[in-house]
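Lab notebook, design round three. We kept the backbone fixed and only want residue identities now. Task for the bench partner: fill in a sequence for the structure below.
Input structure tokens:
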């Protein structure tokens, strides 16, 4: 059970996570490190997510769907955190061991460490190309003084005192973790990668969701790196190279016939999304944001709270 002043505040971001949330909360209960509190930031769930959370010692904070951004969700949870260290996770991850939490926060014994993040692997339903991404960016060996800014807040810990000085950017459509870690490196803080703190990241996205995820991340990348470009040549080149690389990996793993078409589909929609994002406005309107953040139909059970219901937002977003 958490102490009066827990050392760690676990912040879970959730929207319609009834499939995974209970399993995650049970896994947290089994962790060797127990000095924590749990804060669930819910952005308008219409399924049994909140009923599941009510079965556990969880503080729930709410964000209206119309107000949601990833940065705002994180800041909402962190503003209510009482710990020295915050552990940020998506509701659809699963720790790969009972020492996950203990391992993830271990680098903070060094005061120069502002951020630590752990390994990710796929699970049942993960796309082959997504698994290849995990293997590339989350190696099997730790690096406690990483010399680049990459991180991922599906499985990340940070020092709350540093976040208080510099909260997450609430205007970005994605990559808020990368923007934050880049700023910390410029200030001389350390980023630690902890391979032993592994989780399964349970994505099972449709083609449209894959495209929209990379589209919103491309919009954010334009903000973070204003001089960056993504041309038709970049699209064709990266699509070809990534597909061939995945095909070679599938051949080595003897799953080529099963995975070949899915690889082409994933990589195509990934780079179509990136290409479109580089041509979208830097500040998308509400309708486009709803396309990015919420699967089709997922908000329609909500009761309207004003003259413009979420159904109306969905009808507008369908035109984008």
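Proposed sequence:
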């Amino acid at each position: 059970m958490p102490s009066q002043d827990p050392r760690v505040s676990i912040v879970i971001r959730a929207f319609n996570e009834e499939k995974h949330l209970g399993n995650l909360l049970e896994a947290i209960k089994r962790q060797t490190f127990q000095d924590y509190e749990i804060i669930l930031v819910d952005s308008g769930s219409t399924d049994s997510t909140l009923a599941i959370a009510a079965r556990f010692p969880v503080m729930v904070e709410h964000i209206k769907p119309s107000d949601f951004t990833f940065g705002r969700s994180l800041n909402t949870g962190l503003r209510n955190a009482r710990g020295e260290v915050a552990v940020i996770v998506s509701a659809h991850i699963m720790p790969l061991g009972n020492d996950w939490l203990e391992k993830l926060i271990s680098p903070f014994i060094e005061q120069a460490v502002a951020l630590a993040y752990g390994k990710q692997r796929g699970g049942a339903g993960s796309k082959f190309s997504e698994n290849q991404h995990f293997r590339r960016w989350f190696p099997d060996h730790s690096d406690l003084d990483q010399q680049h800014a990459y991180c991922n807040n599906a499985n990340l810990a940070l020092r709350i005192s540093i976040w208080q000085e510099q909260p997450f950017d609430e205007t970005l459509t994605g990559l808020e973790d990368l923007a934050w870690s880049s700023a910390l490196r410029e200030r001389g803080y350390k980023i630690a990668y902890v391979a032993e703190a592994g989780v399964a990241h349970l994505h099972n996205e449709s083609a449209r969701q894959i495209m929209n995820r990379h589209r919103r991340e491309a919009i954010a990348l334009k903000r973070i790196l204003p001089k960056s470009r993504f041309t038709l040549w970049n699209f064709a080149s990266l699509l070809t190279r990534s597909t061939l690389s995945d095909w070679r990996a599938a051949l080595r793993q003897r799953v080529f016939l099963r995975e070949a078409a899915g690889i082409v589909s994933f990589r195509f929609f990934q780079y179509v999304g990136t290409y479109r994002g580089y041509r979208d406005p830097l500040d998308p309107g509400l309708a486009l944001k709803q396309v990015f953040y919420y699967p089709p139909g997922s908000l329609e059970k909500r009761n309207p709270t004003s003259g413009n219901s979420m159904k109306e937002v969905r009808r507008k977003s369908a035109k984008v």
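Keep this in mind before ordering anything: The chain has two domains: 8-201, 207-317.
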